[in-house]
């Protein structure tokens, strides 16, 4: 896995669009002109021009502002395709449910003015993320339970979710909450609810059932007495207990490639540029528009995309083709980040 938003924020300025000087050319916004590498998308193929893109997209009355948004969207799509091609490995290191045994559902816990739940400490590795896939809530009634997720480094909640449990039934709620160890420079997460807000509904206890363990996270049940605010409590007041408070979780430990991407962004320059070239050539080839630019470009775009490496004399210059170049670049990046002696996370300097 990787944080798509964080990765895109880092990579979106790697390659930019060049301002074309032909009279009547679209004025490219400053954001689309930024290029940390010094390369423009036009450098990767002679057919990749803003004029050709504009002629082959569907809205022939498109304004400069909307067209610039369209260009930004093409850039985001190219980055996403490159990252998915490289990091589409099996990133799951473990997936477990915290409690797996049957229990009689006869023992209930009295409500009081306390925060109850779990302290979660994720291993101190930048390239591991602990993901709470879903929660299972077992309560006697249907009063809503608001799950709160805190980190010891800040007062406000990181995540929250109101769940309406089904009485006397284990109720599943999808979460997909990502807990990263070094996102807040260490520290612990706290996940639970305010027991004083449950009304007549009570948590059903598993009566001390042993919980399963995780290799990359430590999970301990806790209670913080006399706390009823949706803000972080004094962690010195945390009391470690042996209860489950009606909560169970499906959680996974995953390889997190975000840090690798962020610290090695320059290595993705050629792949992003070639992916954009491939996408623009596809746009030219498959356009539904009919104009002089489109009619003159399709055959050239097919040759530019596919290449020509035939040994026979066709009279057409030999070319590796954009797709072959992109394929080779992706292979090289995979070898860089996944050495042949095993799939290991690396941070290059």
Q: How would you explain this protein's 3D organization?
A:
With 349 residues, the protein is an alpha+beta fold. Helix content is 28%, strand content 23%. Strand 5 and strand 6 (159-163) form a beta hairpin. It is elongated and about 75 Å long. The two termini are 22 Å apart.
Low-confidence stretches: none
Going by helix content, strand content and strand pairing, the class is: alpha+beta
Order of helices and strands: HHHHEEEEEEEEEEEEHHHH
So what's the overall shape? elongated
- Helix fraction, binned, reads 25-40%
- Strand neighbour order, sheet with most strands: 6-5-8-3-10-11
Cα gyration radius (Å)? 27 Å
Count of the separate structural domains: 2
DSSP strand content:
15-25%
Alpha-carbon distance between the two ends: 22 Å
CATH class assignment of the largest domain: Mainly Beta
Number of helices: 8
For the biggest sheet, the summary is: 6 strands, antiparallel
CATH architecture of the largest domain: Sandwich
- The CATH topology of the largest domain is given as Jelly Rolls
What is this structure's SSE topology?
Elements: H1 4-11, H2 30-33, H3 50-56, H4 64-86, E1 92-97, E2 108-109, E3 114-122, E4 128-139, E5 145-151, E6 159-163, E7 169-180, E8 189-194, E9 203-204, E10 217-225, E11 239-240, E12 247-255, H5 258-263, H6 269-286, H7 292-306, H8 322-337
Antiparallel strand pairs: 1-12, 2-9, 3-8, 3-10, 4-7, 4-12, 5-6, 5-8, 10-11
């Amino acid at each position: 896995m990787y944080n798509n938003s964080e990765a895109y924020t880092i990579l979106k300025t790697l390659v930019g669009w060049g301002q074309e000087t032909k009279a009547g050319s679209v004025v490219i916004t400053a954001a689309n002109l930024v290029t940390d590498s010094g390369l423009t998308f036009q450098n990767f193929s002679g057919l990749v021009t803003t004029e050709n893109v504009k002629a082959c997209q569907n809205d022939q009355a498109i304004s400069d502002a909307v067209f610039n948004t369209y260009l930004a969207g093409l850039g985001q799509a190219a980055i996403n395709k490159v990252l998915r091609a490289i990091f589409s490995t099996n990133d799951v290191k473990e997936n477990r449910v915290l409690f797996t045994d049957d229990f009689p559902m006869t023992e209930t816990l009295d409500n009081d003015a306390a925060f109850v739940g779990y302290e979660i400490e994720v291993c101190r590795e930048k390239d591991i993320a602990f993901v709470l896939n879903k929660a299972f809530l077992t309560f006697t009634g249907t009063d809503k339970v608001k799950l709160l997720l805190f980190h010891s480094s800040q007062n406000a909640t990181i995540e929250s979710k109101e769940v309406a449990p089904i009485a006397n039934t284990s109720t599943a709620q999808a979460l997909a909450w990502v807990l990263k160890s070094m996102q807040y420079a260490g520290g612990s997460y706290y996940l639970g609810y305010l027991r004083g807000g449950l009304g007549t509904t009570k948590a059903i206890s598993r009566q001390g059932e042993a919980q399963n363990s995780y290799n990359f996270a430590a999970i301990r049940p806790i209670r913080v007495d006399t706390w009823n605010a949706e803000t972080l409590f004094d962690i010195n007041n945390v009391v470690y207990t042996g209860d489950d408070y009606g909560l169970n979780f499906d959680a996974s430990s995953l390889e997190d490639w975000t840090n690798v991407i962020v610290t090695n962004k320059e290595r993705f320059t050629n792949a992003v540029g070639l992916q954009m070239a491939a996408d623009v050539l596809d746009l030219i080839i498959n356009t539904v528009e009919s104009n002089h630019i489109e009619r003159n470009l399709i055959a050239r775009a097919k040759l530019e995309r596919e290449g020509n490496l035939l040994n026979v004399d066709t009279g057409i210059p030999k070319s590796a083709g954009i797709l072959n170049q992109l394929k080779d670049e992706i292979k090289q990046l995979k070898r860089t980040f996944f050495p042949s002696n095993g799939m290991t996370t690396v941070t290059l300097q």
